[in-house]
Fold this protein.
Amino acid sequence: MKGVNREKISVILLAIAITSSILFLYNNWVYAQANETATSAASSSKFIGAGMAFGLAAAGSGIGLGFVGAAGLAAISDNPKMQSRVFIFVGMVESIAIYGIVMMFIILGQ
């Protein structure tokens, strides 16, 4: 079981390292007028930020939903009256992805 958790953690850390290296090593080489490149650099940063806002929120929600769903199914199998409480917890975890979508639209709307 520890090997599985280490593999998940290593995949998550690898994804974070790749994303951060893309963000920090991203150079916008300019060969045109200053006004056009300034707007393109700002718009590309918006797209990167919006994608990260939704992507990380969805990934976190998916991981959390896996844990909550497994525990919820175990609780429902022991006591079927717990079904409504489990659905509340699942909804709370899924709301994280909704917050990510809202932040994405806020970033793109500016």
